[in-house]
Write a structure and sequence with these properties.
592 residues; alpha+beta; Alpha-Beta Plaits; Rossmann fold; eight-stranded mixed sheet; 23 helices; 15 strands
């Protein structure tokens, strides 16, 4: 292979790419550096000399804690992937569990750009993302990789459903290669993602041989699956897997055996002239009970013109019911018996409730999750946010201590995963809102969005920082992005509150009034929203309504003053803050 002036000659070729990662490599190196290096060097030599040649595999690169391999076919790659896990086990002989080296592997087949020293392209990145999903001792592969395997000849696969991967625009269907029993469960390892619940959206039934209704039913099911797939809080079993049930009426037991869903969405679709009517219900597989049912209608032409509109409406209503159901489970069953996703959903709902008692209960659930999953960043990040909300609501007996506890929680989340987008966003919120360090906040939000551009809370918190900097239009754009990205109804009032603040900064008080009113219909005790509503009404030319709202604000927080608002407001030096302060004073808030 020759070289050009720019370096080795590049070729496009379709290959099976395998990314291998050493689990907890940083900890292993810190504790057993010399021994781990020696074992890893021996293992890499074995891979190069014994495992790869029979399968025409190529060791593209070897790092201190991983490898990149390339093969002509998925079958060759799958055979070596299994051997990697079996072979590394021999290098753990006579060593304790804390010193054992375990691998996780991700694989994808795609057209890549290759030269004699490396391979490049989106296919390599996707294999790496799949690798991050894998548990110790596990190999996860893409649908394209799976399609290159032959049942009965190559290793078996298990469909894990659709996942949202960082820096990947669409959801990705993942498969586990080989037996689940091969997975190694390390003490305390973050397995929270594995416990994520799953939705199964069955093909919608239609009446008779109505071809038009069948097409509409497919569109609605596709929209709903896509809407539900837009979150990392749960999995959605792929539409291709569900097609096998078209025209059949499987029971929950049969679905549980084949797909292992948590909730099953089923229903009927009818076309009534210009209208589409969809009757749906959601069944909880664990209790064999109906969690939610509804009948939704929409104009047929709207369904086809505005992609996802009906699916989004259904998803919002469905998720609201799911959170309510999981919250009820958390109140009626012993905590140790509850699934982790029940604890997390319930905590998220409780920490955004009006009642201080519910709010305190949310902390109890999050602390239990942190104990159950000490290396999972999610519960630590949510607990940090809980401490922020405690201060914002005025419920913290010692705000300084609450801030310190929040910082400790978010530090733990980022220690486990430095690029955890939610953790970075909450760290920015603590620094900007409680510490009034706007530069730190902006850096954290930028890092969060670089790690995951779909992290809606990072967009939401960033909108406040733009407002504090007197960047009104940017504040509004960030808040609207957050609202589009977030499907979680229990948090909707929180998003609307931030959006109202952003609209005020953008000089759009009428829109701020609407958002604040919508937020307060869900949580009438949220003090920052009441403050924004008073300001918005005054700036929108509604002085009488502003004065009435100011009295509600003062009743909720006696002693609230304009001076106190400015002292605690991170953007106190801006023209926006001056306008807001004057509006509060004109509405009857004491200047202090």
């Amino acid at each position: 292979m020759g070289e050009s002036d720019a370096g080795p000659v590049l070729h496009k070729v379709r290959q099976a790419i395998v990314v291998v990662d050493v689990v907890e490599s940083v900890r292993l190196m810190q504790a057993f550096e010399a021994d781990v290096i020696e074992r890893w060097r021996q293992f890499v030599a074995e891979v190069r000399q014994r495992l790869l040649p029979p399968h025409q595999g190529r060791l593209v690169k070897s790092l201190g804690d991983g490898m990149l391999l390339a093969f002509a076919t998925p079958a060759q790659a799958a055979a070596v992937a299994g051997e990697l896990h079996r072979s590394i086990a021999r290098y753990n002989d006579k060593r304790g569990a804390d010193a054992a080296i375990h691998l996780r592997v991700g694989a994808h087949v795609a057209e890549v750009v290759s030269d004699e020293i490396d391979v490049y392209g989106a296919g390599v990145n996707l294999a790496a993302r799949l690798c991050t999903l894998a548990s110790p001792g596990e190999t996860l592969v893409s649908a394209d990789f799976r399609d290159g395997l032959v049942d009965g000849l190559d290793p078996q696969v298990e469909d894990l459903g659709e996942f949202q991967l960082k820096h990947v625009e669409t959801t990705v269907r993942a498969f586990r290669l080989g037996s689940q029993a091969a997975t190694v469960l390390l003490p305390g390892f973050d397995t929270l993602w594995r416990e994520r619940p799953a939705f199964a959206v069955l093909p919608l039934q239609t009446a008779g041989d109505d071809a038009e209704a069948e097409i509409v039913a497919e569109v609605v099911a596709d929209q709903l699956t896509r809407e539900l797939s837009g979150s990392q809080g749960w999995r959605v079993i792929s539409r291709l897997s569900m097609v096998a049930f078209r025209g059949r009426h499987p029971g929950l037991d049969e679905l549980a055996r084949h797909l292992k869903p948590t909730w099953v969405v089923s229903g009927r679709c009818r076309v009534l002239g210009p209208l589409v009517r969809v009757s749906l219900e959601v069944a909880d597989v664990r209790s064999a009970s109906v969690v939610w049912s509804d009948i939704v209608e929409a104009p047929k032409d709207e369904l086809l013109k505005i992609e996802g509109a009906l699916g989004s409406r259904i998803a919002q209503s469905l998720l609201r019911a799911i959170f309510s159901f999981e919250l009820q489970r958390s109140r009626t069953q012993p905590l140790p018996t509850l699934a982790s996703h029940t604890l997390l959903f319930a905590a998220m709902a409780l920490m955004h409730r009006v009642s201080p008692q519910d709010f305190a209960r949310g902390r109890d659930l999050l602390e239990l999750l942190c104990e159950r999953h000490p290396r999972a960043p999610e519960p630590h990040a949510w607990l940090a946010k809980w401490h922020v909300l405690q201060v914002v609501q005025g419920w913290a007996p010692d705000p300084a201590r609450a801030k310190a506890e929040g910082q400790s929680c978010v530090a733990r989340a980022l220690q486990e995963r430095p690029d955890h987008a939610l953790g970075l966003a909450v760290d920015g919120l603590i620094g900007g809102l409680l510490g009034q360090d706007l530069s730190h906040a902006e850096r954290r939000y930028e890092a969060a969005l670089a790690a995951d551009p779909s992290e809606s809370l990072a967009w939401l918190f960033q909108s406040a920082t733009h407002a504090y900097r007197d960047r009104g239009e940017q504040a509004a754009q960030a808040a609207m992005t957050a609202l589009r990205l977030s499907p979680l109804d229990p948090l909707r009032y929180f998003y609307d509150s931030f959006a109202a603040h952003a609209m005020l900064a953008a000089g759009r008080p009428a829109e701020a009034v609407g958002l604040a009113e919508r937020s307060l219909r869900v949580n009438a005790a949220h003090l920052p929203t009441h403050r924004s509503l008073v300001i918005a009404r005054m700036l929108a030319g509604q002085p009488e309504a502003a004065r009435r709202d100011a009295q509600v604000l003062l009743a909720l927080k006696p002693g609230f003053t304009v001076a106190g608002f400015l002292a605690s407001y991170p953007g106190r030096e801006t023209a926006f803050a001056a306008r807001s302060a004057e509006a509060l004073a004109e509405a009857g808030v004491p200047r202090g």
